[in-house]
Amino acid sequence: MKEHSPQSGDDRRWSRRAFLKRAGMTLTLPAISGGIAACGPFAGGGGQSESQGGDEGAVGQGNKTLGFAMINLTLPFFVRMQEAGGEAAKDYNVRTVWQSADGNIENEIAIAERYVQQEQDVILIDPVDAKAFEPVVRQAEEAETPVVTMGNKVEAGWNFNTLYPDYENMATVARALATALDEKGQIAFLVGSRGNYVSDTREAGFKETIEQEFPDIELVSVQPTDFDTAQAQAAVETWLTTYPDLAGIASVSDPLVLAAMNAAENAGRDDILYAGHDGDAEMHPMLKDGSMVIDVLTGAERVGYWNVAVGARIAKGEKFNKELFMPTYFVMADDMASRLADRGLEVDAVTPEEATETAQSYAEEFGPDQPSSAMSVG
Amino acid sequence: MDKSRGRFSWARILDFAPQLLLVVIVAVAAVVDPRIIAAANMVDVLVQATPIALVALGAMVVLVSGGIDFSPAYGVSLCSVLIGATLLSGGSLIEAMVWGIGGGVVLGLFNGLVIGVLGIPPFVTTFASLTIVQGLTLLLATETLIVQNPTLDALGSGSFGPVPIAVLVVGLVSALVVGVVRYTRFGLRSYALGSNAEAARLSGVPMVRQQVLIYVFSGLMTALAAVLLVGRVSIIAPNIGGISLLLDAITATVIGGTSIFGGRGSVGGTLTGAVIVSLVTNILRVLGVDPSSQEFFKGAIIIVALSAEAGFRALQNRASSAGTR
Amino acid sequence: MRDIRFGPQVVRQMLLLVTTCLIGLAFGVASPGFLSLGNFLNIGLQTAVISIIAFAMTCVIVAKGIDLSVGSTVAVAGIIGALTLQAGLPPLLGLFAILLAGVGVGALNGFLITVIGVSPFIATLGTLALGRGASLSLSGASSIDVGQPLVLWFGSSQLLGVPVSVVLSLVLLVLFWVLLNRTVFGRWVFAVGGNAEAARASTIPVRWTQFLTYVLAGLAAGVGSVITVGRLGSAQPLAGEGLEFAAITAVIVGGTKLSGGEGSIVSTFLGAVLVGVITAGLSFLGVRQEITYIVTGVLILLAVLTNQVGVSRPALWLKKLGRVRGPEGGAE
Amino acid sequence: MSDRPPQDVRTLELIGVGKSFPGVKALDNVSLEISSGEVVSLVGENGAGKSTLVKVLAGVHEPDEGSIRIDGHQARLQNPDDARAAGISVIHQHFSLVPVLSVAENMFLGRELRLGRSGLMRRRAMLREARRLLGELELDVDPATPVERLTVGQRQMVEVCKAMLGRAWLIVMDEPTSALSTRERDQLYALIGRLVERGVAILYISHKMEEIFHLARSAVVLRDGRHVGDADLSTTTEADLVEMMVGRQVEEVFPRTEARSGDVVLRVEGLDDGGLLRDATFSVKSGEIVALSGLMGSGRSEILEGVFGLSKLRGGKVEVAGEVLEAPSPAALAARGVAFIPEDRQEAGIVPAMSTQHNLGLVWTRGRGRAGFVNPRAERTMVRSLIQSLNVRPPNPDSAVESLSGGNQQKVVLGKWLATDPRLLLLDEPTRGVDVGAKSEIHKLVGELKTRGVAILMVSSELPEVLGVADRVVVMHEGRSVAELESGATEQEIMRHALGSAERAPAEHIDKRDDAGESENDG
Questions:
Q1: Quick one: how many helices (H) and strands (E) in chain D?
Q2: Count of domains in chain B?
Q3: Which of A371, C287, D98, D369 could form a disulfide with C291 if both were Cys (CB 3.0 to 4.6 A apart)?
């Protein structure tokens, strides 16, 4: 079990200096806020000067601005997405603004409306709901501001959609997991939260495939987690005691799979097979040792970089189809792929090593030197 | 005299209302699905109640003093991230504890000072600090942290005989909190503040210091909850804990008999409340209730339980008032 | 005849207005696009639902209650309305269904609180979960299209260039002001919150009054739901997430105390506008979200603080601060 | 230790103390001297500056003029801690005890006994100390009982003990007996006696002449914030003292107004609420004042509550103007022109944060105006005339009621009902805690109502009030109406009926009921 404990070589992200810097900031900020609080009603200036720096940078270089309206910036996926988006912004010489709706759809629309007001060059929306954004897309159309809707197809005519085949990918994940389990046994599924488009789509893809194609596989439970690893862990703990024969666990997102593995490890279970989505690097050891059957590499970083790249190119006048698809890859270890192939399931997958390369080479894949056509497949 | 004895037993039953409620829920659960009361599942329920219980103990003292504290929601996230980030950047466990617990204490200090010194109501203060903490957590954590520390792991997921260490730790902390509540002047003054703030002031209780201490206590409990969570979950995202943990904790506190108007609340009741909340979540999981409806049933169960308790209380009041008249 | 003097409420409202203008001006200097008619209308649009619900919340809080369920009520009312429309009911009835659903949740809150005797905080926390869960399960966790122009009108159209929802919020501002200040019911609300015992002795139906404040909150959530459905062109199971806190924040920033008996609709409105200006302004500055969180928190604290001028002064704070570390109480 | 009687005599002197608030001079050149082992009474009408003076002593207000000397040394009382440190303790009308804490915990709150300098309390030691002190003061209270289970009188005693524990040598008592039963009052007197023996000085504030003369050696009289003079109570008569306080002669505090009584407005028969009230039968005619007399806990107030529908009746009949009410409810009674003025005006009378106008309009607005709207102009007119006829000070309709003095608040409570032109007025202790001037004003008002043909049913503990104004007195004993006396009866007569019959003198039994009644009332 130990060999696939999800410890990865991530220490590099956490150099000591960086941590101390950040932690120091964390502790001084309340003091600063307190300071602002103490100096009376003109603290509006505090916020203002803070940003002016940013503004000047942008205006000084005369570059384009992309406004991102996000559902939530606290979830790990979005956090990574924003980080890589920052790199893309540097590469493409654009400025990005990321604002979070904290899960509230009205907030998200308000953010988008303000972007129209602010005359952002391109507005990118990660829509909580496709329907709800049609009115605001029309507003943007009147202001002739290009809009990109990410991951969720909004049919308002004016906007570009940057998509990846979530439903189909998750269907393949379901098939791979089921095949690895010899098409029988109990499995369970961790989702994000109900009403979250990405989570719901992936759930549907998984669930419907299992129900239609694998009558002997029993999907015993689907649990919501709010994308919170603690809740995921609690759910899996309950499964492990309630369904002692549980043979497989799948999830819409990799951190939840990690939490599931952690719970299983605590319970001393090492016979469970996992399947996930996102293509996080932390999953590679488990893919290699065979406990994880399959992962889907969208890659938060790739998604972030790609969307900024598309936005920047639109801002600079490049022409695109209304629908852009980002290439996604299934990630499987070679022996797992051949095992599944033996059982009749061919999946066009990359190895974890290749995946690492792909995941990290997003800057080349979607960089400014690439032609417009590299932004979409099919 | 007979009447008064009758009234006393009524009152005593009411003192154990949360425990009774727990018994009723367990009994109903046993009938509905015996898997729920299987020993292994019950252990899970207890382990999953531990972070709720710790946050709830902090919330209880705050509520007892007539305040409210929303900041543990992301406070737990901040402390967890501080601990995880310290460990991942090569710090020792002790260092990590210092950062994590320090973070909780600083948060409590901030709340206490703003409430006590600036006189801003707790509701807004802690709501604002919740927002601020959310920002700080994001500044600090840019991704999921994977923490593997043997000591923390043992704390979070080891067990001592059949009893999980996390449960033992919460038991120990609860015993300490019982001591604090009963045997320190901090405890006494917290109740005094919530029951009659003016009287406490007139008696010479230093109000500002007391309020600061109360919120620091809540911050400390927040940090302890984070320690347990880090030990148990190991996978720390900047959204760990969050609003749902806080709402669970406040619900636990109130089910446990703490009045949100201050002055009343007990450690035993709060712990029972935490177990009830954890159990209700567990029941819905075991029964495999559709994810869309889970929140609905959770809300419904809580409302029914509280209505039963309130109705019971009303009956008891009527009985006792008829008894004396 | 009547002597003109400024009561504490008026002073507070002036302060709020000045604070709002100063903060708005500061944002305007930082990003010139902020001070435009279009943006003001936008802020109005984005504040409309919050302020409408905050008006009713003011009544609830004045009567010494609290309602945490309004956000999920917006969602559940919208879903129920959309389902009735889907079932083929005429648009007008659909509109009524939304309002009625809101009233229903309000009545449930009122029932739990005034009849059963559950404390308002926890009762409405329960209905918050209940409502959110109900809207998710009724809708199958996905949005429901609404196409009827009549239903959409309130949230999507304009009157003389002003969004209907803004007009509606201003009309409700007046209505709620009249309700609280010019009707017998308004008097009852203040009396019940100020001293329930005295209110009872004055033959005021205390529970009924409290019950009605929750029904009002539900109704306001229903109105908010109508606007939201119009704005989104659909009913959303996750609509109104966090709305209860936004509304309560507006009420408190407006200077109403949670202890009941006092409060003003105009102050609440100004509070909502102030929070709206802060949110919009920070959005205009385009700072990182993390910074936005921190600054929002600080600005809300500041706004409440400036409200308390006269009540607490820096000198007093220093004195109090000194006492934190001060000698033993009483001993010296 | 902390509660040993101080060995030497201590003194407090106020010399020419003055205190101004914006627009008001609350205290002007007040001097006062008090030393260990004596009881000095502080008297004056409400608004005379007594509370300000108390606040000066408590360290809440610092005087702008004059000086305070303690034991001959200049002292400054800048905050409550200073006052406590100087050994001054104030027992407020509204208790400063924490209901959920035990007696011992309350006594030690803010000065808990600790283990060394740790935060740990020595609970047992505190309990022991509390028990010892309670024993020394001969108080029968268990130190482990939560304060919320004590009667008002017991709470008072606990307050005193708490003060003693804090080494107070000067205890200020602000109308301590206003909510006490007779027995509790006597216990308090005994306690004061013991305190004085131990060398404690007591500054005693009261409106009740008999207790001032009973307890105090001398009185300091305040009027309109000024120090009118000191009175040696052994040589001063009650009338003189009242004149000093009021600044004019008060001919009659309880004036009798003559009026022609008419039809029966209220008739009750066999009233029984299943509790303190067992069986009450009497009637009230228009233009008549009927007083309900009896010991506390004899069911007097319960009659009013039962008639007004505030408590559920188990048996009996309530008939208003010839109409038998099946289930009396406040709204139904109010609709039939019945008004109820409850006993505790802080708790059940006023809405403190509301303006005078809105308080006065609280009942009136209902059913007036169109479709639930208040007609502000009509309300203003009504309020102005009421303020004038009630002589509410200050006469500003917009000032918050909480800023008014007790007497004026009581006038507002009365006015709230007068606005509705009632035909039957139920008054519960209408002048409790109200100064002499306001008392006489209130009764003048009640008299006016009587001449206008209003029927008045009044509960009062003050026999002079009962005898002074009532046309008939219904005496209650153990929940039963036992006698009906015409005006002209004597105090002895009333007491004889109130105690059951004088021969049996079941005093102890009555005391028990007494306590039960108390705990009900403050619950």
A1: 17, 20
A2: 1
A3: C287
| CA pair distance A97, A65, nearest whole angstrom | 7
Residue D272 pairs with which residues in a beta bridge? Answer: D315
Q: Which residues of B touch A72 (CB under 8 A)?
A: 239
A191 contacts B239? CB cut-off 8 A: no
**Whose structure tokens read 């919320």?**
D148
Domain extents in chain A = 9-30+165-297+330-358, 58-164+301-326
d(CA D255, CA D512): 35
C25 to chain B nearest CA, in Å? Answer: 23
Rounded Cα gap, residues A224 and C19, in angstroms: 43
**Mean pLDDT, to the nearest integer, of D115-141?**
88
Radius of gyration of chain B (CA): 20
Contact A103, A119 (CB under 8 A): no
SS3 breakdown of chain A: % helix, strand, coil, rounded to 5?
A: 55, 15, 30
Structure tokens at D135: 């024993």
What CATH superfamily classification does A58-164+301-326 receive?
Response regulator (3.40.50.2300)
What is the maximal distance between C-alpha atoms in chain A?
72
Count other C-beta atoms under 10 Å from residue A47's C-beta: 26
Nearest CA in chain B to A20: B86
Interface of C with B in 252-271 (CB under 8 A): 252-253, 257-258
Q: Mind listing the pLDDT tens digit for each residue in C90-130?
A: 999 999 999 999 999 999 999 999 998 888 888 898 899 89
CB pairs below 8 Å between A and C: how many?
162
Half-sphere exposure at residue D359, Cβ-oriented, CA atoms within 13 angstroms = 35
CA distance A295 to chain B (A): 17
* β-strand pairing of D24-35 with D11-21: antiparallel
Q: Band of the pLDDT at A10, cuts 50, 70, 90?
A: very low
Q: Is the ipTM of this complex over 0.85?
A: no
Q: Looking at the domain that runs over A9-30+165-297+330-358, which CATH code has it been given?
A: 3.40.50.2300
pLDDT at residue number D518: 39
Between CA D343 and CA D431 the distance in angstroms is 9
Q: Does A9-30+165-297+330-358 match A58-164+301-326 in CATH topology?
A: yes
**CB atoms A118 and C33 under 8 Å:** yes
List, in order of start, the domains of chain D with CATH numbers. 11-246 (3.40.50.300), 250-337+422-523 (3.40.50.300), 352-421 (no CATH)
pLDDT-above-90 percentage for chain D: 13
3-class DSSP state of C284: helix
At CA A373, angle to CA A367 and CA A376, rounded to 5? 85
Q: Kindly tell me the sign of the dihedral angle through the C-alpha atoms of D53, D59, D61, D66.
A: positive
Domain span at B173: 2-324
Tokens of C26: 């500061």
**The tokens of C84 are what?**
């009735």
C-alpha distances out from residue D173 to A204, A347, D13, D77, D161, Å: 75, 90, 18, 18, 13
CA–CA separation, D516 and D513 (whole Å): 5
Domain C8-27+37-321, second-level architecture = Orthogonal Bundle (1.10)
Radius of gyration over every alpha carbon of chain A, rounded to an integer in angstroms: 22
DSSP-derived secondary structure for B115-179: HHTS---HHHHHHHHHHHHHHHHHHH--S-EE---HHHHHHHH-EETTEEHHHHHHHHHHHHHHH
3-state SS assignment for residue D119: coil
Rounded to an integer, what distance in angstroms lies between the CA atom of residue B188 and that of residue C188? 37
Alpha carbons D150 and A288: distance in angstroms, whole number: 73
* Cα D182 from Cα A3, distance rounded (Å): 84
Dihedral (Cα; D390, D394, D400, D405), 10-degree rounding: -80
Q: What is the pLDDT of residues C156-190, one digit of tens each?
A: 888 888 899 999 999 999 999 999 999 999 999 99
